[in-house]
Amino acid sequence: MLEIKDLHVRYGKIEAVRGVSLDVTPGKVTLVLGANGAGKSSTLKAAAGLEPPVRGSVRLDGDDITRLAPHKVVRRGVVLVPEGRRVFSPLTVAENLRLGGYTAPKQAYDETLARVHEMFPILADRANGAAGLLSGGEQQMLAFGRALMSQPRVMLMDEPSMGLAPVVVDSILAKVREMADSGIGILMVEQNADAGLDVADHVVAIARGEVVFSGVAGDARSHASVLRAFLGEAALAGQ
Ligand SMILES: Nc1ncnc2c1ncn2[C@@H]1O[C@H](COP(=O)(O)OP(=O)(O)O)[C@@H](O)[C@H]1O
Ligand SMILES: [Mg+2]
């Protein structure tokens, strides 16, 4: 459904992404692994319309969405769950969700909100509380819920487990699996490679802006280029 082809992203002289190609499939989790600075976030931002690529294309069901404005990309059904969650702390949980669903007509909105509450009951329990008072894991659920309010077909997730305790990491990633199982295509960057592999279908490893491995999750664990990509060169030095 979402097809990224030969993507190049630059910041001045820095070539952050150099020819990345990957696919996102309905109902599947594609995990992106790579060391710090490998170009993972830049790839997601380009797909979301936030960082226009200098070359390459992003297609949704064959339609070119490469140079659409970010809000139009959301309307097409591709939504970014940003790094660091970015919930609006002073606003209530309900208000945060409303911001995610601003494009939906009233009836669709109510139905979607009911589904989000079903998947994340804490967001119903805490509807009138300030988002900033939620725990890190709860804020991540709010970030997921807010994204779901736009009724996405594809979700781009940048390090959803960052800064969370190990037990919370597992429950967040279980939710990612649940969202995929509902039919959404997911492209997820995750530093927590082991936990990420547990819920992933496909794995793409990126090093210095280039894809160094692409395959099914089960094959990724033992693949040297994957280890190198997410542990960094230093981890394999001397081996
Ligand atoms: N806004 C920016 N301006 C300049 N350089 C950037 C910017 N964002 C990222 N970079 C650089 O681009 C490269 C890739 O960054 P990024 O995509 O954030 O990597 P990752 O998410 O894999 O850690 C890094 O060298 C980073 O320093
Ligand atoms: Mg990043």
Automatic annotation (TrEMBL):
It comes from the Bacteria. Keywords: Amino-acid transport, ATP-binding, Nucleotide-binding, Transport. This is ABC transporter ATP-binding protein. Belongs to the ABC transporter superfamily. Residues 2-233 form the ABC transporter domain. It holds the Pfam family ABC_tran. The keyword RNA-binding does not apply. The lineage of its organism: Bacteria, Bacillati, Actinomycetota, Actinomycetes, Micromonosporales. GO terms for molecular function: ATP binding.
